[in-house]
Design goal:
Length: 291
């Protein structure tokens, strides 16, 4: 399929990938301001999430946090493109990756499932970890309905990733893990199947319970990873040890541990989490809708 938008996207990505970091962040903030009227529904979702998750803040602080997260979501689109298209010489000075030897050691024994959260720059983290490791990672990814956009995104991802695996393609995931490969799996979004309601910032969140079973079937080590951007625009990525007593044999308990660890990481930079996602769309029986 010939897509007229592809050359335009390639040209824009080439420019974005080579911007100085300060200019890229400023461009993201400007685009957020320009697109603000179009983000009304996302603002509503982000504000509902922040209101539910940060009751200790006053109304003004909650509104400020939700709006800042939306600005970071727009910046995150540029960070996504930079992760795919920026030269290594552009990104290398911008990142510190801690725990890469832990990942190498785990890979010497088999596959690794790197589990993180939907920070607005999470996919950039995939590139940064791959560059530090010296080999590209595989990643679970949602496919887009637009064939032109999906084709461009897939080609862009394949510039820096070994492969992308469909969100529900369990067979491909297990084959990749059994082949001893590192796979990024970010599973903190709303799940309406194979889930348990566990606390996330004190709110019952429908959370996937299958991670321990997938790791077992793939004979893989689970390592959590987190990323945040500091005020100077520098990215801090850390790969942590497997959580103690995980898996516990209780899928709901393991899902709750995942959300507790993610919450601690999000609290380090709460405006860099994807609050614009309907995280609490699936509600416990009898609970009122949040959105």
């Amino acid at each position: 399929m010939r897509c007229w938008s592809t050359p335009l996207l390639d040209a824009a990505a080439w420019v974005v990938g080579r911007l100085p970091q300060r200019a890229a962040l400023a461009l993201g903030r400007a685009l957020a301001w320009l697109s603000w009227p179009l983000l009304r529904s996302r603002r509503r979702i982000a504000r509902a999430n922040v209101d539910a998750c940060f009751p200790e803040l006053d109304a003004t602080a909650r509104r400020r946090l939700a709006d800042a997260s939306l600005v970071n979501t727009v910046i995150g689109v540029l960070e996504l493109v930079r992760g795919w298209h920026a030269p290594a010489r552009t990104l290398a000075p911008l990142a510190t990756v801690v725990g890469i030897e832990r990942l190498r050691d785990a890979l010497s024994r088999g596959g690794v499932m790197l589990v993180g959260g939907h920070m607005t720059h999470a996919e950039l983290g995939v590139r940064l970890i791959g560059d530090a490791l010296g080999r590209p990672l595989h990643a679970m990814a949602r496919r887009h309905n637009d064939p032109c956009l999906e084709g461009w995104i897939e080609r862009s991802r394949r510039r820096v990733m070994a492969s992308t695996i469909g969100k529900k393609d369990v067979r491909a995931l297990l084959r990749t893990l059994l082949d001893g490969q590192p796979v990024i799996y970010v599973a903190d979004q709303n799940f309406n199947y194979q889930h348990a309601f566990v606390p996330f910032f004190g709110v019952p969140a429908a959370t996937m319970t299958a991670l321990p079973e997938l790791a077992r079937r793939g004979r893989a080590t689970m390592l959590p990873f987190w990323i945040r951007r500091d005020d100077a625009g520098h990215y801090h990525v850390r790969i942590e040890p497997t959580w103690s007593d995980w898996p516990s044999g209780d899928p709901a308990r393991d899902a709750a541990r995942y959300m507790a660890e993610l919450e601690a990481a999000v609290r380090e930079a709460p405006d860099q989490y994807l609050w614009a996602h309907q995280r609490f769309k699936t509600r416990p029986p009898g609970a009122a809708p949040l959105y």
